[in-house]
Design a protein that fits this description.
mainly alpha, 85% helix, 242 residues
Length: 242
Amino acid sequence: MNAFVWLLKREYWEHRGGFFWAPIWAGIVIFVLTLLGAITGEVGMRRSGISFGGRTLGDITSHMAPEDLARLGSGIDMALYTLCGIFAIVLFFVTFFYLLGALYDDRRDRSVLFWKSLPLSDLETVLSKVVTAIVVAPLFSAAAAIALMFAFLALVSVFVAFHGVNPVTTIWLTASPLSVAIKILALLPINALWALPCVGWLLLVSAFAKRAPFLWAVAVPVVAGVAGLTRDLRLFEVAPGV
């Protein structure tokens, strides 16, 4: 068990840029763009003299019906899910290229010979890469997504408070950030199970491709899909005449 933990640490140390820094930088970029958008919108509103009929946002939100507040909370939750979706895209690319190079890079630089000299089985080595792809990397991505989610809510709270709106009753009590965060964490094991076939295929390509593992990983499923679609179309054309 201790050897397996060290294998996981090895995978993290060798790919820290993708697992740790990629979601962090993605979150920083998204937060900075959101901040710049809020500043630009505020400056634009003041320069254009846009008003709300002589009322402040605080006056408008204080007279909102409960169903309107519920719709506002649902909209905020959808925005939070959208932010998390961006991290899912980043995670996809990180794990895709990690798995493609997981065994291929070891064979290319011959470091596999060093690891084979240690008292480690091939099963432990492969399992460490699978666990890293479906557990370790998603945990880092989920943590970054949740951190950005609360940073986004804090930024929105500052913006609405600047316009006379109570952020506690209008933002934090209408939205469900804790529920969103719990659902994100609950989806991790489900997504891991769904990803296992793709993980297995990418590791298979990484283990046996002599060169260009990306082309093998993408071309084979595409060709198989096109062949299957062509066969189905031919059967569909023949069926009416039978």
